[in-house]
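Predict the 3D structure for this chain.
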Amino acid sequence: MSKLNQLLSELFDEEAHALGDDTPFAECSTWDSLKHVELVVGIEARFAIDLSAAEIGRLTCKRAAREVLTARGSQ
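Done. Predicted structure below.
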């Protein structure tokens, strides 16, 4: 399991398996602004990067998160 998928599983528990690449995180019943902060902090910690405000704004689905990480040379 990739580090990103592991993080999403921890954040979304049982809903993580239903997350498609383009499923907006906002469609998860547990998604809120705190969950977004937890996602940002989790990505920054696991991948040892500091995300810019623009990158944080792009974290709307699994595919977008992978694209941000790929652009940064992480993943």
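The chain has a mean pLDDT of 91.
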